[in-house]
Amino acid sequence: MNLTNHRIRDYHVHTSFSIDSDAQMPATCEAAISRGLSEIAFTDHADFGPDDTPDDFPTVKYLAEIERCRTTYGDRLTIRAGIEMGEPHIFAQEAAAVLDGGDFDFVLGSAHYADGMQAAWHATFFEQPLRQAYEAYFRQVVDLAAEGDFDVLGHLDLVKRDAGQFGKVYDGPEPYADMIRTALRYIVERGKGIEINTSPLRRGQSEPCPTLQILRWYREMGGEILTIGSDAHRSEDVASDFDVALEMAEAVGFTRLATFEQRQIRWTGI
After folding, report:
1. What is the pTM of this model?
2. Would you tell me the crossing angle of helices 177-189 and 212-220 to the nearest 10 degrees?
3. What average pLDDT does the structure give for the chain?
4. Separation between Cα atoms, residue 254 and residue 220, nearest integer Å
């Protein structure tokens, strides 16, 4: 698929406001423009779990930097103020405090911890019986889908990506279909969405998050709200492998993608 035929929008991008990124926001905007993007949503991490840093999210500084970039690049790039909120169903008070601190366009809700607040990105998580580990993760995803304040649920089967990093086998999605489909049902009923997250492809894996099967389940259940995100933590990774994501979306019948302004959907064609 020739991406020059598409108005590309990356709705999952990190900068140095995230603990795990050194990317500078202006450099990321320049990279986005050079790749032909029309829109980008910065979604830096606001996480509150036991393995996260205890500092409050710097909402004022973050939004001020976004405004500076809008002043510099706004004639060439639409820049959305997003945030990736970790476990907003558990840390509802903390999440609300961040969102009340400024005007956000877009909220990704993510599960980085499994049920019982096990850090699902640590090697030790994958040292327990794998079926037990994956079930614990998807239980958390179900709870997030049912209760969290978010617009789009990020990297729904993230555990698959991280298992690959530690050389572990992921046997999904079929063994976890009941939980995954329950989460998707909550997402559809609540008018929320999911993303295609292309980050596993940069790590040598064969498919993004989620799998084509999960995307198909979502569509069959009436899911309409879909974004595509690179989960870039480096400027050079913005919009990486979007050709794969767009082909997946079209393969299961999507004809449009969701964009967001002040947390309201604005539709755009694929």
Report:
1. 0.96
2. 50
3. 95
4. 11
